[in-house]
Amino acid sequence: MRVGAAYLAVAWLLLQVAQTVLPAFGLVAAVRVVIIVLAIGLVPVLIFAWVFELTPEGWKRESEVDRSQSITPQSGRRLDRVIMGVLALALGYFAVDKFVFAPQRERAVAEAARAEGRTESLVKSYGEKSIAVLPFIDLSPDKDQEYFSEGISEELLNLLARIPQLRVISRSSAFSYKGKDVKLAQVAEELNVAHILEGSVRKSGNKVRITAQLIEARSDTHLWSNTWDRELDDIFAVQDEIAAAVVEQLKITLLGQAPKTREVNADAYPLFLEARQLRRQNTRESADRAITLLQQAVALDPDYAAAWVELAAVYLTQVNYGRPWQECVRLARAAVGKALAVDPDYAPANDRLGFIAMTFDGDLATAARHYEQALAVEPANTDVIGNAASLAANLNRLDTSIALDEYANARDPVNPAGHVNLGLTYLGAGRFDEAIESLRTARRLAPEYSGLHYQLGVALLLKKEPDAALAEIEKEPEEVWRLLGLGIVYHTLGRAKDSDAAVAETIARYAADAPYNIAYVVAWRNERDRAFEWLDKAVVAGDPGLTEIVFQPLFANLHRDPRWLPFLRRIGKAPEQLAAIRFDVKVPQQAP
Q: What is the DSSP string of 120-183?
C-alpha cells in the first residue's frame, strides 16, 4: 500500500509540473502522453511491490525472504518519508502555482479572450471587408519625395475610411511597418485585416507615376493592380480610381455615392503634404518650416480647408516650444475659422475646435457640440473618436469613453497612445487589471513612451502592489513623472522622509509647470489643505490637467471634504454641471 501511495504522490506531482511546463513549449499533446504512461505504470508497480521485497542483498521474491531477516519495517519508514517529502513538494508547488503562475496564466487567458472577442466581433461585423494602407514607396530619382509618396497613401487611407462598410486601419498603425522587413501575412495578422493596399510613387517635376496593388493578405494573392502616368493636377482622379477599385474588388455595396477626393490647387497640394510630415517631426524648426509651407499653400488656394486645419494643428504644437498658449490658440482658432468658412461641415475642423474647447478653454459643452458635428459627418474617423473618448472621460462617462477607445484601438492596434488613453480610463473606472494590461501593451509597443512607467506604477499602486509600483516608477526616464510617482509610492510604503524629499524636489523644479499634478500627490498623502492650495494654483495657471480631475483616482482623499464639490462647481465640473451637458455619441455600427 505504501508503494502505491508513494507512486500516486510522485505521479501527481510529475503531472502537475508537466501541465505547467509542456504547454509553454507548445507540447500540449505531450501532457496526454504523460498521463497515459503514468496510468499504465501503476499496475506493474503494484504487482512488483506485491511479489518482490527489498532486502540487503537486493530485490527478492517475497516467498524466498526469511521473515526474521525482513527489513520491511525499515523500508516502510523510508517510503513514509518519501511520501511526506513528495507531499511537501506538492504543497510547495501548489502554493507557487496558485500565487505566482496562476495569476499570470489568468491574465494571459483574459487578455487572449478579450483580443479574440474583439477580433471575432470585427470579423462578424465586417467580414473580409477590412484593409490596411501601407506607406507608398518613393521611387523618385533623387529619393527626396517621401513626404509626397506617403502623403498620397495617407490621403487614400482617409478616403477609404469614409466608406462605412469598410474597416480601415488608422495611419499610426499602418505606417508603423515602414522600413520593416515583415511579410504581408504577418502585417495582416497583427492588424486583423484581410487586405493590404500598397504601392509606389515616382515624381519628377510635374509628372507623377503611381502604382497601386490590392493584396488578399492571407493567401498573398494579388487581386488587382494598376499604374498611372499623369500630370500632378490629375492626382485626385487617380486617388478616386484606386478607391473605386478597392470597393469593386471587395464587393462593397455602397448605400450612397462613393467618397471623392477634394480637389485643390495642384501646386498647393505638395506643400500641404510636406508640411504635414514636418509637423509630425515634433521640433521647433520643423514646426516653423511647416507654417511657412502652409501659408504658401493657402495663399495659392484660399479654399484649401485641410491646409487651414493643418495650420491650426501646427500652431497648437508651438505651445510645446515656448510660444504663449493664448497666442497659439488665437491663431489656431482663426485658421479653423477659415476652413469652416469654406466647408461648415468639415469634420477635422470641428474636431480641432472641440480639442481647443476641451483642452484650453475648459468648455466641455462647446467641445461636445463640435465632436457631435464632426462624428455626424465622419462617424468612423478614429482621430475624432479618440478625442471624443477623452471628452466622455472628462464628463465622467467612463463606460462611453471605454467603448469609444476600444473601437478606436481595434482600428489602430499598434498605436501606443491609444492603449495609454484606454488604460487611464480603465484606471479611473477602478478596472485595475485591465488598466495594467493596456499600459503594458503600450510599453511593449513604445518602451520609451514618456510617463508610461509612472502611469503603470500608479496602476500597480492602486491595485495594492506598492513594491511593484516602486520598481516600475524607478524606471521612469522623465524626471518630473519619476518624482511625482516617488512622492506617492514612498508615502504608501511608509517612507515619509523619502516622500517628503521627492515632493520638495518636485515643487522646487516643476511648481510652475505641474500645479495640478502636485495637487494630487499631496492629496494622496492626505494633506487636504495643501492639495486645495495647489488646485487653486492650477486654476490660475490654466493647467490643462484639470480637464481630467473628475476621474483622477489620486484625488480620492478629497472626495468627502466639504470643499471638494464647491471647487468642482467653481470650475464647471460638479456632477450636476457635467450631467447637464448633452453629449450623445455612440460607438459606430456598420451600415446594414
A: HHHHHHHTT-EEEEPPPEE--TTS--HHHHHHHHHHHHHHHTT-TTSEE--HHHHGGGTT----
The rounded distance, in Å, linking the Cα atoms of 175 and 353 is: 26
In a domain, 344, yes or no: no
Distance CA 284, CA 307 (A): 19
Reported pTM: 0.72
DSSP state of 574: S
558, 564 contact by CB (below 8 A): yes
Asked if residue 142 and residue 111 are part of one domain, the reply reads no
How far is the C-alpha of 433 from the C-alpha of 154, rounded, in Å? Answer: 35
Do 81 and 134 reside in the same domain of the chain? no
Residue 56 domain boundaries: 2-115
Q: Are residues 20 and 59 in the same domain?
A: yes
> Residue 542: pLDDT above 60?
yes
Picking from 19-28, 283-292, 358-367, 518-527, which range would have the lowest pLDDT averaged per residue?
19-28
Among the listed residues 192, 158, 190, the one whose alpha carbon sits nearest the alpha carbon of residue 177: 190
Residues 151 and 247 placed together within one structural domain of the fold? yes
Cα–Cα distances in angstroms (integers) from residue 60 to residues 7, 49, 81, 386, in the given order: 20, 11, 23, 79
Same domain, 105 and 17: yes
The domain tally of the chain equals: 2
Pick from 225, 215, 221: which is nearest to 193 by CA? 215
Residue 136 lies in a domain: yes
* Residue 375 CB-density burial (10 A; 0-12 exposed, 13-18 middle, 19+ buried): buried
Burial class (CB in 10 A: 0-12, 13-18, 19+), 181: exposed
- Do the beta carbons of residue 449 and residue 469 sit within 8 Å? no
Does 213 lie in the same domain as 162? yes
Residue at which a domain ends, from 66, 82, 115: 115
53, β-bridge pairs: 60
- Give me the chain's average pLDDT, please: 84
Distance CA 12, CA 238 (A): 68
State how far the Cα of 191 lies from the Cα of 201, in Å rounded to an integer. 24
Domain endpoint, select from 80, 115, 150:
115
Query: How large is the angle between the packed helices 398-411 and 382-394, nearest 10 degrees?
Result: 160
